[in-house]
UniProtKB/TrEMBL annotation:
GO terms for molecular function: cysteine-type endopeptidase activity. Residues 351-569 form the Peptidase C14 caspase domain. One of its GO terms (biological process) is proteolysis. The lineage of its organism: Bacteria, Pseudomonadati, Pseudomonadota, Betaproteobacteria, Burkholderiales. PANTHER family: MUCOSA ASSOCIATED LYMPHOID TISSUE LYMPHOMA TRANSLOCATION PROTEIN 1/PARACASPASE, MUCOSA-ASSOCIATED LYMPHOID TISSUE LYMPHOMA TRANSLOCATION PROTEIN 1. It comes from Pseudorhodoferax soli. This is Caspase domain-containing protein.
Amino acid sequence: MTLSAFVCGSATLLGGCLAISDAIAPKVTFKQPARSAEASALRSVIILADSAEVSQQMSMGLESEMSKLRVDERPYYTTAKLGQRITAQPSDAQLSAMARSAGVDAVVVVTGGGSSVTATQSTEDRYSCAVNVKLFKSCPKDQSRTTKMACTTTLGSAAARVRIVRAVDARSVFVDVVNGQAKHYRCNDQDIPQADRRQIAYDAVVSATTATMQILAPSYVQGPLDLMKADAGLPAEVLKRFDAASEFAKAKRLDEACSRFEELYTDYKESTALTFNVAFCHEVRGDMLRANQAYKRASELANAPDAQIDRRLTLTEKALRENPAVFMPANPNAAATQAPAGKVAASGNGRRVALVIGNARYQRSALVNPVNDARLVGERLKRIGFDVVTLENLDSARFGAATRDFGARAKGAEIALFYYAGHALQADGENFLMPVDNAKMRTMEDVRDGGGVQLAAVVAQLDVAAPAVKLLVVDACRDNPLPSANRSLAGGGLAPVKQPPEGGLIAFATAPGRTAEDGTGKNSVFSKHFADQLMVANQTVEQLFKRVRAAVKSETKNRQEPTEISSLVGDVVLATSK
């Protein structure tokens, strides 16, 4: 038996080979998203606390941690300073006014702090032998002795109410009690100091401060390096470069390793190992959504059960369930302020983000073109300067996570653009975008209650994110995915949208109550012309959609007429001449 086989065979007592391999694998640093996406967008704050000792300790700890926090090797907070001690609970409006006066994004208020320390007695069994026993020999039963040893568990707890009020709209983006704990365990026969109750209480406060920071900002944790070995079928030169990238990772130069894996992946996208390793790089950077999508793609390429892929899929899916508003890195050089009305110009200097979704592989009533449409539109948006996330064939859980994540990415952006191609339905005047796991959706009630994504919810998330310009483009209503499906719904199409988002525009591939054509070629009629017009320089968004409407009407002989509803102020230009 080899040493590795012996270790893995013996590891069943410790929870299997995974526990052993994780323990000895090289460690890498994983970025963890902030638990509050809204709070994480606030980069300059004042910290207030009441007179409670724990509140004061936490506020000073927060100021210290914020001042030294670096994310992606850059300071995360531009301002983090302590304010005056408060004697009453100020209103949201008062705190917002205070933040605006100080020129910061928000006020963090820590109140009602308290701590406690408790001790619990227990015993542990100690085993001894009354006679000396040779190595590998067991003690005779009649010589075995068991004694009870007294032990003490000292547990410290600390808690305070944390409230975060945003300056721009006088709204509490987070309000909750945050807890921390510290533990000391000692048995009387152990050569360790007895518990210092005051130190344990302080350690619990530090734990509560750390928990608060994890709400406010991204953090980092250590985890095992978990890269996949190269596919056997890769060319020799590629294998050599693959191995070189792996060596950089083992040497804790993961940035260089990921850069090399991603360069190789550009030309070998059918490689399971490269797809997996690129996914791992996304995960390490805290980009759980892209990591999860890439792991799913690696699983498809493997075309067989794979424990390593399944392990990472489980971890990323758990992260998405627990914290859907996953942290996505913004362009650090981008302008973080909204452009004033009438000034959203063609300069392209502000941050522009886009979420592009194409759903085609439905469990019922699959479509042909949406994935092609999403890829085409996503590629064109990238070419004109957008930071684009393109996702395909989303089920209800991933669809919801994707839109919540987009809301987090859209904070502080100049332009946020949402594009969707796939099925959509209306129920009681509400428009629902359809995830691909629609097998059990047989009635409109199923759509409403069982996973359909409300277009209004996407609009609401963008309203909260408050980018300067909000653009939503819906290429849907292609047919009815419910039972007895046909090419047009009874009373078909989508419901009219009565009110566009403030500072925004919603465009539909066809008029309210009408259905859109899927197209006879690779792309839908609408997406083809929309993508073409995206590349036309120096036209406003309104001009763009007028030209799309004319082209679609002409090609469909007036059977399809795109529409839009707008509250834009000023000229918005997506593409500019070089």
